[in-house]
Amino acid sequence: MGKTLAEKIWGEHIVRSAPGEPDLIYIDLHLIHEVTSPQAFDGLRLAGRKVRRTDLTIATEDHNTPTLNIDKPIADPVSKLQVDTLRANCAEFGVRIHSLGDAEQGIVHVVGPQLGLTQPGMTIVCGDSHTSTHGAFGALAFGIGTSEVEHVLATQTLPLARPKTMAINVEGKLKAGVTAKDIILAIIAKIGTGGGQGYVIEYRGSAIRELSMEGRMTVCNMSIEAGARAGVIAPDEKTFAYIKGKPHAPEEFDAALAYWKTLFTDADAKFDVEVNLDADSLEPFVTWGTNPGQGLPLNANVPNPADISDPEARGAAERALVYMGLEAGTPLKKIAIDTVFLGSCTNGRIEDLRAAADVLKGKKISSTLRMLVVPGSARVRLQAEQEGLDKVFLDAGAEWRNAGCSMCLGMNPDQLAVGERSASTSNRNFEGRQGKGGRTHLVSPLVAAATALRGTLSSPADL
Amino acid sequence: MEKFIKHTGSGVPLRRSNVDTDQIIPAVYLKRVTRSGFEDGLFSAWRNDPEFVLNQEAYKKGTVLVAGVDFGTGSSREHAVWALQNYGFKAVISSRFADIFRGNSLKGGLLTVIIDQSDVENIWAAIEADPTTQITVDLDTRSVSYNSTVLPFEIDDYTRWRLMEGLDDIGLTLKETDSIDIFEGNRSSYKPKTLPIKK
Questions:
Q1: pLDDT band at B2, cuts 50/70/90?
Q2: Considering chain A, what percentage of its residues have pLDDT values greater than 90?
Q3: I need a labelling partner for A279 at 20 to 30 A (CA). Which of A7, A14, A48, B198 fits?
Q4: Is the whole model's pTM more than 0.90, yes or no?
Q5: What is the mean pLDDT of residues A152-177?
Q6: How far is A169 from chain B (nearest CA, A)?
Q7: Is A154 in CB contact (< 8 Å) with chain B?
Q8: Which of B156, B126, B124 is nearest to B142 (CA)?
Q9: CA angle A76, A65, A182 (to 5 degrees)
């Protein structure tokens, strides 16, 4: 029997396997940031260990970094200590780092692909659950905890249980205004936040093949919100073209390409589970609740918990409506928004900024809200400025910020106030995620831009 | 790592599903560079509510958290495990855990036990009826017991052995250095490297 893509990559990275034990898997690339690494470096120091492969390791500062006044020292002393600790650790252990102010600084999952370090067939890890993003290149990429960060630093391997495989087939053609973000929000609403638990998801089908590399990254990014270990998409000509010319694209490009072309699920391979989604009928999708599975098409109404038969889901919906300050039956399009956040490792790449700028061009955002535009990396910011997108955002009344995770999780000063409501292109609508007491609706960049113009959740079709 | 063989303590009923790691410990608490002191941040938003279970006198000394389905979803932050441990929890019982959280917990010696949702409901009922009810989580016999009920749970042999011996994963892997050397010798030369830096 043939193998799935994930099984092929897994098999090629087994250093050691023994019955009844996890496989020891070799890690091709280890991405590091300031939040989940300090205790790992401490562990190395305590044990007198080195970083085994500094040449397969790269660090950047993203979670704590301010998006204003980046030429000044970080104001929050605790954030500053964490960033300073990363810098000191990288200097001590010889790890490459891109610090605030560097053109390659930015969200770790935006930086890897833009440097060409993310390539098909690799195993990639990072102490960050959105490492699944890199699966868009046909790499097996997953988030790990700090103990595992230390393990990879010391050994360049991880003992891992073999995951199960799930195919999600998205066939058909997306309507205008429907994007990669809507696909993944619809998938999570369909299978639930635990639906992918224990699986690597392979996204397949014509609608996935039609997506750009950046759209594919958006889909794979939120695999974790469906509970999956990782998400993968088979590499194709778009993937190869995206990598070619990037700083770390292979010098032996043809040899690499020959290998990359073997990376697909065999026709006779069998997935443990298959799920189908119809792309033709998809609409722009938004979340109404406090987990990413609580989403609906934008034209729907806030659901009535009484209509939900499963008692767990009903209880969760009741609590979510209280937290979100929403009444059952309210049309989602009538929900007024205070802050629009465009950015994050989900939707902070150049195409996301272009899509939003296209909607905003020549118009003004509603006086009832603020809009933050935070590029995913300094490189994305520079590119956007070359294209004049910064002017479009500023002319529309939005704020043009520096790169980082920013309001996706509010570890830096960019936070929601208590009761403040956002339309956010990020990945998590958990209670307090964007600031204590803040309320989050997850949306696509197109919906974010249209919402900024109208003041209530909207799509470009409403303009 | 401390060995885990068996633990007996009182239970804390957390009747919520989808408890994500942002709830277990919000991002603002992640700025510390140590592994200790995270207990202040544990469920910090919910602890503002006097009715929250950890604020109830009867449950303040609990060491076994009994939670709803999909516990530990979201961020990979191991700080969530540290916060639970720093607070005093030794085990968490649920009908389903998020993968990364479960991996982190078993690395750090916080035992995560998976049982059927109906059994979780029964434990909730028992510890709500009598908060002094003692729950024993026994890794040796792979069972959870309280009152006269004994519930078997599954955990793979390898993880169980590692926890019962208190073994450090890195130490175990370093014994395989020869295999890692051989693997590295066979890696394709076109695989990318972060150093030297290319522009």
A1: confident
A2: 99
A3: A7
A4: yes
A5: 97
A6: 23
A7: yes
A8: B156
A9: 130
> What is the mean predicted confidence (pLDDT) over A242-267?
97
Measured between alpha carbons, how far is A240 from A261 in angstroms, rounded to an integer?
9
**Residue among A257, A248, A269, A254 nearest A138 (CA):** A257
**pLDDT higher than threshold 90 for residue A1:** no
Concatenated DSSP letters of A283-333:
--EEE-SSSTT-EEETTSBPPPGGG--SHHHHHHHHHHHHHHT--TT-BGG
Distance from CA of A143 to the nearest CA of B (A): 6
Q: Which residues pair with A341 in a beta bridge?
A: A372, A424
Residue of B nearest to A80 (CA): B31
Interface of B with A in 123-152 (CB under 8 A): none
The ipTM, to two decimals, is: 0.95
Give CA–CA dist A174/A158, Å, rounded. Answer: 39
A35 band by pLDDT with thresholds 50, 70 and 90: very high
Name the residue facing A194 among B69, B157, B184 (closest C-beta): B69
* Contacts with A120 (C-beta within 8 Å, 6 or more apart), sequence order: A137, A138, A139, A235, A239, A259, A260, A263
Token pair belonging to A98: 């891109």
Hey, are the CB atoms on A82 and B33 less than 8 Å from each other? yes
Question: Residues A395, A398, A401, CA angle at the centre, nearest 5°?
Answer: 110
For residue B149, give how far its alpha carbon lies from the nearest alpha carbon of chain A (Å). Answer: 24
Cβ atoms of A303 and A317 within 8 Å: the answer is yes
* Sequence-separated (6 or more) residues with CB below 8 Å from residue A290: A316, A319, A320, A323, A324, A429, A430, A431
Nearest C-alpha neighbor of A294 from the set A424, A396, A428: A428
* Per-residue pLDDT at A328: 98
CB contact under 8 A, A129 and B100: yes
Question: What is the spatial order of strands in the sheet that A439-442 belongs to?
Answer: A399-400, A370-373, A339-342, A421-424, A439-442
| Predicted local confidence at residue A149, as pLDDT | 98
Cβ-Cβ contacts under 8 Å, A52 against chain B: 180
Q: What is the mean pLDDT of residues B111-135?
A: 98
Among A15, A29, A154, whose Cβ lies nearest the Cβ of B170?
Answer: A154
